[in-house]
Amino acid sequence: MSIYRARSLIRLAKSKSNFNFTSPHLPVPCSIRRISSSIIPSHLERVGFIGLGNMGSRMASNLIKAGYNVAVHDINLSVIKMFSDKGISVKGSPREVAEMSDVVITMLPSPSHVLDVYTGPNGLLNGGNLVRPWLFIDSSTVDPQTTRKLSSAVSNCALIEKKDSWETPVMLDAPVSGGILAAETGTLTFMVGGPEEVYKATEPIFSSMGKNTIYCGNAGTGSAAKICNNLSMAVSMLGVSEAFVLGQSLGITASTLTKIFNSSTARCWSSDTYNPVPGVIDGVPSSRNYDGGFASTLMAKDLNLASSSAKELGLKCPLASEAKDIYAKLCEDGHGTKDFSCAFRHFYSGKDEL
User: Which residues are identified as catalytic?
Assistant: First the structure.
């Protein structure tokens, strides 16, 4: 891609304005950065979105509000109806989404789901060797090996018709951080792997769903960044929970310890933003019986991905292994749907702040 075109696309990404929107079905932000449909680059206009769970439904809604022509697919018929009732195009399979899209975004629960959507019957790449989308973006949390396998499969296809500077389709791995609230308010952080020139050309799409986009490197590095981030997040949450329980047992309230942590060397996201002790911070999952947020089943899955990657590389990651076992136990004990901060109550038997 020429330097001139790259700069033009970057300038387009910076042209934003505010837009208010409310929906009776899906929680959406009161104010987001809107890209007028008149200035959306032609190669990004038609977006297919597959996977409309807690995260994907909100991400797709933000794209719609930003002016993109969006078609969606999910196996959950009730969420599909929410979109069709709003006049949004719904498709019966990933392949049908691909047939009308310039860009396809997937947001799915696990590597097996991603592989099925891409390469299974009626999958995105199952139309022979020819595909219409020039770009595939996977925002699922998967292992780097799966990402690189899919990236190779995409690059081995050919485009039905050339799109601007691209003669063959490309893929970006772009998992996210921020959770449901950030997905709703359009403030996600994207960790992106793949060709850098493609990443730059796609910035308008990312800016419609998030406030931070970090380029990580070649294919698979976005996925690698995400599992490293979640490994650190899990270990941090367990460490903070363990310290709070010890403090409670020694006669120190969690509120007092939180003040100490947050003004000293123990300060971290798990203490000052997402505190696991019920009654310490309002508005976080621990304040609503650990409902909502990032499910323990998903954390267990991500820790499995991190542990498997470490094992393949011959790396010692004892904290990842221990965290994986703890979250597996939480799931076995019936707490898999609860936010991962529930380890404080359901693994460590910590007490609520009265």
Answer: 226
| CA–centroid distance for 295 within its chain | 13
C-alpha to C-alpha distances, 309 to 114, 277, 304, nearest whole angstrom? 18, 32, 8
Cα separations in angstroms, 38 against 16, 44, 69, 102: 12, 12, 12, 16
Neighbours of 162 (CB within 10 A): 11
- Can you name the residues that pair with 136 across neighbouring β-strands? 104, 171
Global pTM value: 0.84
Q: At what angle do helices 221-249 and 318-332 cross, to 10 degrees?
A: 70
| Token pair in block for residue 122 | 């009626």
Distance (Å, whole) CA 139 – CA 123? 17
- Domains of the chain, earliest start first: 3-219 (3.40.50.720), 226-346 (1.10.1040.10)
Q: Enumerate the β-bridge partners of residue 34.
A: 17
pLDDT digits (tens, 9 = 90+) for 294-329: 999 999 999 999 999 999 999 999 999 999 999 999
Number of residues that make up the chain: 354
